[in-house]
Amino acid sequence: MKGQKILQILKDNYKAHSLSHLYLIEPQFQDSEQQIAHFLTDFLTSLGAKDPKRHEDIFWLEPTEKKHFVKDEMEPLYLFFKHPAHTLNRKFLIIENVLKISEVWINKLLKEFEEPAIDLTIFVTNPEKAEVLPTLRSRSILLRLPLRAKPVTPLSLDERQLEYKKLCSDHLFDFESMKAFLERISKYLEEAGDFRELEEFKNLMSAISIDREYNNPLQHSQFRIYTFLQKTL
Fold first, then answer.
1. Contact 201, 228 (CB under 8 A)
2. Taking the mean position of all CA atoms in its chain, how far away is CA 163?
3. Is residue 22 part of a domain?
4. What pLDDT, on the 0 to 100 scale, is given for residue 117?
């Protein structure tokens, strides 16, 4: 399900007063860009919370360098849970990164997670797709967000030719330099989303590994790379 579709479903459920109490949000892949937090900001802003992290009906726990959220950060939640929402039709608790909540605090908050005393929706993010305690996962609805691909600037023709000349120079053209170069190209193709070319590229890398294993002339590998670069990059 696309991110915009998930966003619309949450908005519709909010208007219908049918949001669940607890959501666990994960990316399809590990989320180093905090795109889940951006998604939640977009959602809460669309409800009328212009500044979600400072809104009176929203409690947003952001991770720090500490291993876990500490007592002083967690105890204010109990006061937050006591009073109903003022301007929104429910309160929201955002807990960024499930790894920051200790097992002790998860167990203390289980009642609020399961049956809050007020209209409350809790979003717990899992950007690293870490193992989650069964007691938490079993009580939550999992939302898996498709994240936006990072923009990739393709290499220009001059840059491609320069890379190839470097690769084929006498002092660089060996199996180790080839391996390093091919790893860079592999990462480039993966980030660019060129999965068809990536599959062909993996076959190329396997063929070069065989060349090395059987001590085939370097020219074999050189020709394979040259052909691939001419067609792909």
1. yes
2. 31
3. yes
4. 86
**132 and 180, same domain (yes or no):** no
Specify whether 60 is located in the same domain as 132.
yes
User: Whole-prediction pTM value?
Assistant: 0.62
- Cβ neighbour number for residue 184 with a 10 Å cutoff: 10
What value, to the nearest 5°, has the Cα angle with vertex 144 and ends 65 and 95? 35
DSSP 83: S
User: Does some domain include residue 72?
Assistant: yes
Residues 24-58: tens digit of each pLDDT: 998 876 665 578 888 899 999 999 998 999 999 99
Residues 6+ apart with CB under 8 A from 49: 55, 57, 58, 88
CA distance linking residue 221 with residue 209, whole number of Å: 9
**Domain span including residue 117:** 3-145
Q: How many domains does the chain have?
A: 2
Q: Indicate whether 88 and 11 sit together in one domain.
A: yes
